[in-house]
Design brief:
CATH architecture of the largest domain: Roll
Strand order of the largest sheet: 16-15-21-22-23-20-17
CATH class of the largest domain: Mainly Beta
Number of helices: 3
Helix content: under 10%
Mean pLDDT: 87
Oligomer: single chain
Number of strands: 23
Structural class: mainly beta
Radius of gyration: 27 Å
């Protein structure tokens, strides 16, 4: 049996229309020889792919960008000088696994968030990210007070997708990396339905995942929605219901200037002119918010929030980038705390003064 001696891996990483790569110019070309102590060759491409996944969110969930296409061509050379080439493609997300999950942990095949209970204000639309693929979500059933109010098909059967040269088409439309109808590779969608208090996500293999929706009526404080990139590499909503406090931090530098006027007959200075001159004045805003009372599952949600690379807050009908400033988490239990509330501090991810050049 022939033994592998070397391998060359070509990677194309891009967004936009599937198949729009330049075949002659791969993003990366990697080459490895087999070490005498090893039986095979391994390529670690995670960090290479991550550099080309750009996360974009404007508040419009239909235009979220959170993935990239990856196509590869792996050519293997064996000791008998024969060659073999493997060609494939997939959709990549900027997620991560935990140490306990081992090498190459897989995404949850249906629900792309760790918690199965969510809290939303009364009148707001509940949303959860789901995976649409041949082994992901097939449909979502929405219930209100135990009554089925809507059923939404999530994953189209793969026979409806055809391959025409390098482009997948569905009803003559080119598929983009984040478009929900992409089912030839992994795609994501959002399960949402106004007024539903339970979502039952049915996978293509028949298994179900139930997400319970708790509607909160908060008469005293204004709820704020934070959208962040979770460990699965997709955007997840988290509402904060209780007290919010805002802070402003101003930094400045100064120097002492000479205000003396030397005239022809005398020396004087103006009592109305400052001798302390300020410059390089900048201001940064931060704020602290409280989740309100939640269940223990939110220990993991808050952990992922503190570890996120991208987050936004929705306020005043706008969406602004933010950075979680809190850097430690005390895990809470109902046994110890009775009522669980998380207090998180955030920074706006920009200077308050517009000094972009």
């Amino acid at each position: 049996m022939a033994t592998i001696q070397s391998a060359t891996l070509k990677l194309w990483i891009y967004s936009g229309n599937f198949g729009s790569k330049d075949p002659e110019n791969p993003t990366y070309t990697l080459q490895k020889d087999k070490l005498p102590s090893e039986s095979g060759i391994t390529f670690d491409i995670a960090e290479l792919v991550k550099d080309y996944i750009e996360i974009r969110f404007t508040g419009d969930y239909s235009t979220i960008q959170q993935s990239a296409f990856v196509e590869y061509e792996l050519t293997r050379v064996f000791d008998d000088l024969s060659e073999s080439t493997l060609i494939g493609d997939f959709v990549a997300y900027n997620g991560y696994g935990d140490f306990e999950e081992g090498v190459n942990p897989e995404l949850n095949p249906v629900l792309l968030q760790s918690n199965t209970t969510i809290y939303v204000p009364v009148g707001e639309l509940p949303r959860v990210p789901i995976l649409r693929s041949t082994n992901g979500a097939a449909l979502v059933e929405y219930y209100t007070q135990g009554v089925l109010v809507n059923t939404e098909t999530q994953g189209m059967v793969i026979e409806y997708i055809t391959a025409d040269l390098d482009n997948y088409t569905a009803d003559t439309e080119l598929l983009n990396a984040d478009v929900s109808i992409l089912t030839t590779a992994i795609g994501t969608g959002i399960a949402e339905y106004e007024g539903a208090d339970k979502m039952v996500i049915v996978a293509t293999n028949g298994t179900t995942t139930t997400v319970n929706v708790n509607y909160i009526c908060e008469p005293k404080f204004t709820p704020y929605k934070v959208t962040f990139l979770n460990k699965f590499g997709v955007l997840q909503d988290l509402w904060f219901f209780k007290k919010r406090t805002d802070n402003l931090n101003v930094t400045k530098e100064s120097y002492k200037r000479n205000t003396i006027d030397i005239g022809a007959n005398d020396v004087s200075y103006s009592r109305y002119k400052s001798t302390k001159e300020l410059y390089n004045i900048n201001s940064d805003r931060s704020f602290t918010m409280n989740t309100g009372f939640v269940i223990e599952d939110f220990n993991e949600v808050i952990r992922q929030l503190l570890m996120t690379e991208n987050a936004w807050i929705s306020e005043n009908n706008e969406v602004y980038p933010i950075v979680p400033k809190t850097s430690s988490l005390d895990y809470k239990t109902q046994l110890n705390e009775k009522l669980i509330n998380f207090t998180i501090e955030f920074d706006y991810a920009y200077n308050d003064t517009n000094n972009i050049r």
